[in-house]
Amino acid sequence: MTDQTRSSTDDLRRTAAVAADYTSLQGLINVTTGIGIVLWALDQSLWASAVIGVGAVVWTVYYRRRFGRAVRRGSGAATAAVVVAAFVVCIAGYAVDRALAGPVLVMPLLAAACFAVSYRLGYRNVGVTPVHQAVVVLLVLSAAAPLLGLDALGARTGMVVLGAAMAVVGLTDHVRLVAAMKPVPRD
Question: What is the number of structural domains in the chain?
Fold first, then answer.
């Protein structure tokens, strides 16, 4: 096998892996969601809702126009189920943090677990990067913010860290997608 043939084969495998995990790699949606979560934590719920809603629509249209559609059977329903479950788990953790004001934040720990599970499900073909792993570690460490006196926002500290983590992971995923996929030609 020549170097050129090996390179073509590697490119084809990488593109197939990215296409299989396409839904998870649409990172700009996570960026705007992360920004929205930070805004919500800072008591800007109207702006948060607008950023999350508009961002989801704008970036979904962008990805479809730029890269087309790559859909696995059942991937939409599975993705929605994982997102809803993670949302419920994180909101429950936030409620516990607000009610108990304990020495450790529960929500970042639950968010880290949700990230780890979603990585296992969403990146089956492309794998996780060191950035993804660092975000999980950061979430776990941020749970200790009250012990360290770094929780000026109280329970909202975990939400700020979660929003920032989502934005970082989103940028990472977007870069991975753009680097691996070529735009769809215009009709």
Answer: 1
